[in-house]
Design brief:
single chain, about 325 residues, alpha/beta, Rossmann fold, ABC transporter substrate-binding protein, ABC_Transporter_SBP, ABC_transptr_periplasmic_BD
Length: about 325
């Protein structure tokens, strides 16, 4: 199994002349698989849950950096996977698991002080995959974050020889996207949504114009309040949020992560106590939708939050 350099999106090629080899191009590296991997390490929660959803628990020899409890439907299988590190795994920890494939949702996992760079892993003959959602610039411009997420499932399906399983997952999640779009079509006007992910020392981090919250906003007939900021999670101020006066506020709950201000209750309390935020109609009239914070980043669970926001928009009277 070899890791070769290249540059493109993570679409997989057809098997080679022998019927076995599969080539995948992932975020600037071309990976060739002579056979399905048997020992896989997932470097973060999103990639871990994707592999579990695809029924690959028997191929997993390590996981790391799980920020909250895994979803209940994955708990039994997750308990079978060795935890290499509660936070970011080091290259020593990754290599000690003797993997033949490494997957991650974010490029930031592959650094010298974490699991090792992708180049370093490739020199060891160890292919590494990054979610297409973290490499949008290397994919067709018309691919949405959900399209990119689904391309991950397709690539993994080809790599592991489970194409039908991956196709079924894509079809299931596309149905949720379609249902959300039907809700959005019934929304009049263009309400704005603020996506409040986390706070650090009392400073809020919200969804910018890059990422899945922006797409989810459009699907439900709204607009992300900070779509004009070309970042995934920009740091802003409460005053700046108040100036934008969002119609609806989506609050991510990260209470299991345990940092101050991580829970949805704490974030809502901050808004109610802030002189400017407390005067917003969305706060006074409780136009607030709670969602699992981890689902605000693209993952196999993001469609759940999409469904929650679509339902919230209906419950708030924006769609009938």
């Amino acid at each position: 199994m070899l890791g070769l350099t290249g540059c493109a999106d993570p679409a997989a090629s057809a098997p080679g002349p022998g019927g076995d080899a599969v080539t995948v191009v992932s975020c600037g590296q071309e990976l060739r698989f002579a056979a399905p991997p048997e020992r896989v390490v997932a470097l973060d929660q999103s990639s871990t849950e994707t592999l579990l959803e695809l029924g690959l628990v028997d191929r997993m020899v390590g996981t790391a950096n799980v920020k909250t409890k895994v979803a209940p439907e994955y708990a039994e299988d997750y308990a079978k996977v060795p935890v290499l590190a509660p936070k970011n795994a080091t290259s020593e920890q990754v290599l000690a698991a003797t993997p033949d494939f490494v997957v991650a949702s974010f490029k930031a996992q592959y650094t010298a002080d974490r699991s090792g760079t992708r180049g370093e892993l490739a020199e060891l003959g160890l292919p590494s995959l990054v979610s297409a959602t973290d490499c949008p610039e290397q994919n067709p411009a018309d691919m949405t974050p959900f399209d990119l997420l689904f391309s991950d499932y397709e690539a993994l399906g080809r790599i592991f020889g489970i194409e039908e399983r991956a196709a079924a997952l894509i079809a299931e999640q596309r149905a949720v996207v379609t249902a959300a779009a039907e809700t959005g079509a019934a929304v009049s006007g263009k309400p704005t949504i603020l996506w409040l992910y986390s706070t650090f020392n009392g400073t809020p981090y919200v969804a910018g114009g890059i990422g899945v919250p922006s797409e989810m906003s459009g699907l439900v007939g709204a607009e992300n309040a900070f779509d004009d900021v070309a970042e995934s999670w920009p740091e802003v101020s409460w005053e700046r949020i108040a100036e934008r006066d969002p119609d609806v506020i989506v609050v991510g709950d990260l209470s299991e992560r345990g940092a101050p201000g991580d829970s949805a209750d704490e974030k809502i309390a901050m808004m109610r106590a802030h002189p400017a935020m407390s005067q917003l109609t969305a706060v006074r009239e409780n136009r607030i939708i709670r969602v699992p914070g981890i689902e605000m980043d693209p993952s196999v669970r993001s469609v759940n939050t999409l469904g929650l926001v679509a339902k919230g928009m209906r419950d708030l009277g924006y769609a009938r």
